[in-house]
Structures are given as C-alpha cells and as structure tokens.
C-alpha cells in the first residue's frame, strides 16, 4: 500500500497579503475584504496542489502501512535461482516540501501504544526532502493493523519567489473577476507558465 500524506496544521498566514492584493486589484474599499481573503487562500491552495510545494509554514503527517521494502531477484546465466530478496529502503520521500524539520517519528503497537523511533537513527535530507535511515539503523516497525508508522514533519518556504507571487495575484484577479462564473475553476495559462519552473515531480 502507498504512503498517505495528510495536512495536519494548515498555514496561519498567506504568501500574499490583503493589502498587496487590493493594491494589485485597485480596490480601495473594505466591503469585500472577507471575499478577497478567501480567494487568496484558494489561490495558494491551488498553487500548492499544482507545484507540490508548501508555500507557507504548515505541518504534514505521512502514514505508512509498513517501512517500504525493495524486491531483488537472484539470477544466474538467465535462470533465476533462489527466492526474492527483500531489502528495506534506506530512505523515503516526503511530499509537499521543502521539509524544514521532522517533528515526530512514531511507531504504534497492536494495543495502540506509541513509541518514538530514536532520532539518532535517522536524518533529514532537506535537499531531496527525504528521511534517511543511518547505516546499521534498525528497521522501523509497528504492529498496529492500520498505519503503524507515522512521520510528522514541518514544511514551508523561507521566502516566496517573485513568479509564484505574481501568479498568485493573477489567479486571485481571475477568481475575483469571474466569481460566480462557470469557468472560474480554470487556471489561466499565464499563471501556469509562471509556476511551471517550480513544479515538483511527485514520487
């Protein structure tokens, strides 16, 4: 079964402010501030969905049915000999980066008791957004029937690139001008082109 990723703690601030958005739209009243704040959050969520990035600080949980294993076969002169050899992966890929830190690495037993996998047995690769087991580290294992391994981690950019912010402002403009229209779900091509260089290929 694949690893499942769920948002635990959403961002408390947005990558573009209400003031920036109103200046961009040339809106000089406060009658629609609540609507604009909603559209800002919607634009950010769509950007994160398309790029695979966490624009602002937020917390995610990876739920693992088991630590992943790779299958290898023994071959000799084109004829397989022996059984499949399963080796544990030394790392797993975390989604919705950039990953800033690992907050918890929890193993659950069959009775529902939690224990921490020792922090000295793994490290975070912030460039590849991977959690990596150190050489000789024991295999993380839990006995709970459903998702016995949970990894909680914090993600988010330290700064937002200009093209992403411009794309957000353009998308908010599109959503604002087409609110109530049937085509307001379509993201303009000019916005997608601004975000394209930042898209990550999901594993």
Word description of this protein:
- This protein has helices at about 20-25, 35-50, 160-175, 190-195; strands at about 5-10, 60-65, 70, 75, 80, 85-90, 90-95, 100-110, 115, 120-125, 130-135, 150-155.
- The protein is of the alpha+beta class and about 200 residues long.
- It has two domains: about 10-55 and about 160-200, Hypothetical protein yqbg (Orthogonal Bundle), CATH 1.10.3230; about 60-155, no CATH class.
- A five-stranded antiparallel sheet has the order 1-2-12-8-9, with no helix packed on it.
- A hairpin with a 5-residue loop joins strand 8 (about 100-110) and strand 9 (about 115).
- It is elongated.
- The model has no long low-confidence stretch (mean pLDDT about 90).
* SS-based class: alpha+beta
Proportion of helical residues: 10-25%
Our count of helices gives 4
List the helices and strands in order: EHHEEEEEEEEEEEHH
- Poorly predicted regions are none
Q: Based on DSSP secondary structure assignment, what is the total number of beta strands?
A: 12
